[in-house]
């Protein structure tokens, strides 16, 4: 029997492994990973499960959901909020997730500029009048580079035991492949898109003729969208209501970048300090810190016991050194750590980000750390 499709002999229950809805979401996820869209909108997003999956795709910077039913969106929308870990370790990309309450039968400017629009099991829920307006709203007005539409394949229905009329009481229709394909081809032709058909939910062995359980059309806009084509649109009034928005912490935001840089600088400086002081005053074994030993990327080449140390002036020093109860660590040393220079890009930006956040030598060339706390331990 087909691995993916199992009809339980005695109960008559048809099961897909993984479940069909997960296969649809996986299809979208694969498409996102292939095309790397930055802005994705899910129309008919219901309980936001697909949005919740897509928020983990690192290419996406703008994620929007639209549904005509606010109650179903509100049920689980908290899953779209940032988690404590997102604040502790902000991502490099920016991400804004927004939920709108409204209908795909209406145009709203908030839906402009998307690269990918997904309509997963949506069209069969539309009233005839809404379905009529749908192509103009999605393909004509929103005009993203890619549109994915999935809908049940009615030809598969006889293989779903216990099914009366349709798969869901709210389905206004269920199309066979010829019906979906002719609608999709006509829509693609009218709005200058190409369309390819595929699906998820393989039929069982020997029944391949019925096609996939879920049929899918992937539409790709033939011509790139120009600024003129966007501007030629009549200005549209906002009709959707925004019911949720989450702006994720990101290193693109100066505030989070500064935090991350300062934390990294302090962490690296502490390791160097430990290393220098450990050299001067050997740590008793029970105090040895595994983390510091294993994390140590920097090996000071300076001879810690050198008598010349105290006579070194900060400006001329290329190496960290201890003078009295102060550890001096040249900024160039700290900037040379890959994590630090990757975050900052340039040395100038690095200096700008740490200014006022750490103590610097009078000439501003080195970070100063007190040795005091270490000495207190002895
Ligand atoms: N995409 C989801 C939900 C599919 S059910 C999934 O794959 O699980 C269809 C959803 O479309 C429902 O949440 C319904 O409220 C919504 N819907 C129905 N008519 C709509 C319309 N005119 N505009 C926007 N959403 C609509």
Characterise this structure:
The protein has 378 residues and is of the alpha/beta class. The chain has 2 domains: 3-247, Vaccinia Virus protein VP39 (Rossmann fold, 3-Layer(aba) Sandwich); 254-377, no CATH class. It contains 13 helices and 13 strands. The strands form 3 sheets. It has an 8-stranded mixed sheet, sandwiched between helices. The longest helix has 27 residues, at 254-280. The radius of gyration is 30 Å and the shape is elongated. It starts with a strand and ends with a helix. Residues 7-13 and 282-316 have low confidence and may be disordered.
Task: Summarize the entry for a quick read.
The protein has 13 helices and 13 strands. With 378 residues, it is of the alpha/beta class.
Indicate the topology:
Blueprint: E1 5-7, E2 14-16, H1 20-35, E3 39-43, H2 49-54, E4 62-67, H3 70-76, H4 84-88, E5 96-101, E6 116-120, H5 128-142, E7 146-152, H6 177-190, E8 193-200, E9 214-221, H7 227-231, E10 241-247, H8 254-280, H9 290-295, E11 321-323, E12 326-330, H10 331-335, H11 338-344, H12 347-354, E13 366-370, H13 372-376
Parallel strand pairs: 3-4, 3-6, 4-5, 6-7
Antiparallel strand pairs: 1-2, 5-10, 7-9, 8-9, 11-12, 12-13
Bound molecules: S-adenosyl-L-homocysteine (SAH).
Mean of residue pLDDT? 86
Q: Characterize the main sheet.
A: 8 strands, mixed
Shape: elongated
At the first level of CATH, the class of the largest domain is Alpha Beta
- Roughly how many Å is the radius of gyration? 30 Å
Q: Which range does the strand content fall in?
A: 15-25%
* Spatial strand sequence of the major β-sheet: 8-9-7-6-3-4-5-10
Termini separation comes to 73 Å
- CATH H-level superfamily of the largest domain: Vaccinia Virus protein VP39
| Number of discrete helical segments | 13
Structural class: alpha/beta
- Tell me the domain tally: 2
Spell out the helices and strands N to C.
EEHEHEHHEEHEHEEHEHHEEHHHEH
- Uncertain runs with pLDDT below 50, 5 residues or more? 7-13, 282-316
Helix content: 25-40%
Name the bound molecules: S-adenosyl-L-homocysteine
**What is the total tally of β strands?**
13
């Amino acid at each position: 029997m087909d691995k993916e499709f199992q009809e339980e002999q005695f109960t008559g229950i048809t099961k897909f492994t993984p479940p069909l809805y997960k296969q649809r979401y996986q299809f979208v996820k694969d498409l996102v990973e292939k095309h790397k869209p930055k802005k994705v909108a899910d129309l008919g997003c219901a309980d936001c499960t697909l949005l919740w999956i897509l928020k983990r795709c690192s290419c996406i910077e703008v994620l929007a959901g639209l549904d005509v039913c606010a109650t179903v969106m509100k049920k689980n929308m908290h899953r779209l909020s940032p988690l404590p870990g997102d604040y502790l370790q902000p991502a490099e990309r920016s991400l804004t997730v927004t939920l709108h309450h409204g209908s795909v039968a209406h145009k709203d400017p908030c839906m402009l500029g998307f690269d990918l629009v997904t309509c997963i099991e949506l069209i069969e829920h539309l009233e005839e009048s809404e379905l009529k307006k749908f192509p103009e709203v999605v393909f004509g007005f929103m005009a993203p580079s890619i549109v994915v539409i999935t809908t049940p394949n009615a030809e598969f229905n006889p293989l779903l035991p216990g099914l009366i009329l349709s798969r869901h009481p709210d389905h206004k229709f269920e199309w066979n492949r010829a019906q979906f394909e002719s609608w999709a081809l006509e829509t693609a032709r009218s709005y200058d898109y190409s369309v390819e058909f595929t699906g998820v939910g393989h039929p069982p062995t020997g029944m391949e003729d019925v096609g996939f359980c879920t049929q899918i059309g992937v539409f790709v806009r033939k011509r790139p969208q120009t600024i003129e084509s966007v501007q030629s649109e009549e200005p549209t009034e906002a009709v959707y209501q925004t019911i949720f928005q989450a702006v994720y912490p990101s290193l693109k935001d100066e505030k989070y970048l500064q935090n991350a840089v300062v934390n990294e600088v302090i962490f690296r400086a502490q390791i160097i300090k430990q290393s220098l002081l450990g050299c001067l005053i050997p740590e008793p074994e029970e105090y040895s810190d595994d983390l510091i030993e294993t994390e140590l990327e920097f090996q000071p080449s300076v001879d810690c016991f050198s008598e010349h140390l105290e006579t070194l002036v900060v400006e001329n020093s290329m190496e960290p050194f201890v003078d009295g109860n102060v550890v001096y660590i040249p900024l160039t040393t700290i900037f040379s750590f890959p994590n630090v220079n990757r975050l900052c890009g340039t040395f100038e930006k690095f200096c700008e980000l740490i200014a006022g956040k750490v103590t610097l030598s009078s000439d501003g060339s080195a970070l100063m750390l007190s040795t005091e706390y270490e000495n207190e331990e002895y």
